[in-house]
Model the fold of this input.
Amino acid sequence: MAEAVADLPPVHYRLDFSRAHMRYIGVCLSLPSGATASDTTGWRLSLPAWIPGSYLIRDFAKNLVGMNARTVTGEPVAITPLDQQTWQLPPCDQAIEVRYDVYCADFSVRTAHVDPDHAFFNGSSVFLRVHGLEQQPHSVCLEGAPAHWRVATTLPEVAVDDRGFGDYRADDYEALIDFPVEMGVFEVVRWASAGVPHRMVFSHPHPKTDFARIAQDVSRVCSTEIDFFGEAPFSRYLFLVALDRQGFGGLEHRDSTALIFPRDDLPLIGETEVTPGYQRFLSLCAHEYFHSWNVKRIRPDAFTQLPLARPAHTRLLWLFEGFTSYFDDWMVRRAGLITESAYLEALAQTINRAVRGKGWSRQTLEESSFYAWTRFYQQDENAVNAIVSYYTRGALVALMLDLQLRLRGGSLATVMREIWREFGAKPLPEGEAVERFIERISALSLDDFFERALRGTEPLDFAPLLARFGVNAEPVAESALSSVDAGAIIGGDDSRVAKVQVVFEDRPAAQAGLVSGDEIIAVDGLATSGADWGNRIRRYRAGDAVQLTGFRQGRLHQWTLVLSEPVLNQWRLQLACEVTAVEPEALSRRRDWLAALPSASS
Ligand SMILES: [Zn+2]
Done:
């Protein structure tokens, strides 16, 4: 892209929140006069089709309403659409104002959501890109919001009032769209980790939420991660936490993150336990925070100068998402917030998502990463048979790598710190560069391992490795409640039919001819339903042939389902000393791997 032009004013956006009741953000974009583009070819404007960190074409431009343009003296300027998200203005020797509304009704971390209570937006949903001026400074003025609202963002302030309204400024367009903004009424907690100021903003929390406890716990995670990498890559950090009845998600940014989390899973004052829900919150914070290093700064070549109009392809998401998924739970353990057993349970859940179904035998990790846009982000009911997750199998690869390195006196932590030093400020090339780098840092030959792990479709044999760290891995059935396998996920909330939701390849339901969408109304002549199916099938034994009656596209069908023994394709991880005797070396290795670190300075 072009270099910044010294004598041009910043590209300026005025955002008006006075019609929040209509879910609108009113935008006025000021285009300067005197630039080459305005005089000769005219301005070209576009909105991103996707947001970095979320690999799906989302067509944000569909939410723009009533776009029009005028010169500063009020003359109309024609706008010609070039495609679904790009517009052309004619040459003009005057400054131009482009106005449009953005309709904001998506309650997610990826887009924008506005109502009379609050506004949240990502710049990729709101700010039109001015082609040719991407490297210019971009300034933003926030105005027109209700008097009791405040602003939370790390977009650099220029001149704002004590509520945060006023003028902000980003160095360039890429920076501009990397600072999510929350406005409204919220709770704020503050702390310093390694001397760096941190804030966590809670929108619509339960009034009795124990904010101080959460701040203390998350600050330990942050300090642990800063110690891990050796430095904080930002001068301040902001967690934006949007609370809801349910929902779960996070999106990473350069010095902030936007999260959605269930309100009732956060601890209330007086509660001291780390519930599974709260553990999930801590892991989510650890995950997005880890991305500040791993993917926001250590990033693939394909993610520099992003073509936000079309997908950016990388085969390395196993590193960016998989390794981050391995380290998120591990950081919560290292920060001393959960027990070793609770950590192993979380690790087992990650592994079990990776090994369920047959997807890992049909797609390699590199393919999973490359096809993220159309496969991982657009999963259907056959995904368990067809694709593997770069998150979960990537985490399993990280685990195995970490344990192999630890057996030889190293660790993946040391390797990550070296990757940070080497690639923190320069793009990470596609291909095997990072594999060779890890080999060089660890002085190990890992060629075979990477070949199998990243470009192979075989099971990964992690249990013997875990055994050497005093962790017993035992294969178990998907459902501890049932002594038979039907080879399908069948259920739903319909009180008249049990719906076939997922059919696992080569297992009883598939052999019986059931397909997803089939509706079962009776088992051996007795009525069933979504809620009842499990109880009914549980009373049979492996080898029993069960007569099912139901509908496919409204036509009556009969199936004979021959139940089999449960498939032992899931794993239970336990501290070996609780199960069997364990050698002292294994205990010492486990201590090095999993002991809580002395409370990091905060
Ligand atoms: Zn992630």
Summary: The first strand starts at residue 11 and ends at 16. Residues 287, 291, 321, 324 surround zinc ion (CB under 6 Å).
